[in-house]
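ARCHIVE ENTRY
Sequence with per-residue tokens
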Amino acid sequence: MTEVVDPVEALARQLARHPREPLADSPTPLRAAPRLSEDLGQEVWVKRDDLTGFGLGGNKVRKLEFLLGRARADGCDTIVTFGALQSNHARQTAAACAAGGLRCELILTRAVPRSGEAFEHGGNLALDHLFGATVTVVDDDDDAIAAAIGTLHERIDARGGVARWVPPGGSDAVGTLGYVAAGVELAEQITASGLTVDDVVVAASTGGTYAGLLTGLRLSGIGSRLHGICVYRDAEHTRDAVEGLLVGVADLLGTSPVSFDEILLDDAHLGAGYGLPSPGTLDAMRLFARTEALVLDPVYTGKAAEALVARVRAGTLGPGVTVFVHTGGAPALGAYPDLDLA
């Protein structure tokens, strides 16, 4: 008799083959948002990945479990990563390295055209220093970044260090495994709750969160549409990143990649660019805060919420439940004291 293998169990076995450092408080809750749902006229539930609990939480903690696991297995003593000045990924990486006894080197770029004491010294950047990371700030320029990388290579080599170089957002195939695991977790919660989930909405930046969620949901048998709201680059560039990660993570799992036809990306709410909220972003932040006490940030979750609200108003979401994936980011609010949130 042929053994019938549960797809979720099979996927869990594949994930267990990869080194993993326990960091996140998981599973994170999937909660109803009744007052928000009443306001919108659409049933919305929220996957609270702002409550991963480590280094003030956020989605990158899930990626770092696998990234640090691989780094330690490879004998690395240093994690090097990149981001904008107020990067949530950088903050969570600094926290993970502090707890794990690893050196953390951050190369942060002035990629967002904002200035002021709070933006240049507060928010996530202050936390990077608090967690003990070595921070190098450079202009958002290829030559400046290359020079910083060269200097850092020399410094690590001089002390005989072994570094794991992690791309922005932790979005390589190994980091994406963290959101495959999150996709499995969400699939199990959807099944256990008995909800009919037509749509899932999440911010999409460097692509790892989106590609991992899509893979985890599909391999777990959940067919809900996954809408990636572009907050970093346009849909074409984001799609290129997602496609590459779908192939890379499938290779690590020994599966076929999810069909590229499943990718749904929307850059209509990118606005003036990364880190620059529009009036609609601030409206969505107020709505989520005043109905559910959910604190969104102006870079990622605020824009994703703006897109969710716009889609509800336009009637383009299915009649079933919509799940909003809250990826965190609230610590960056301190770097935006000029936002009118009243």
Observations:
- The chain has a mean pLDDT of 96.
- The chain is about 45% helix and 15% strand.
- The first helix runs from residue 7 to 16.
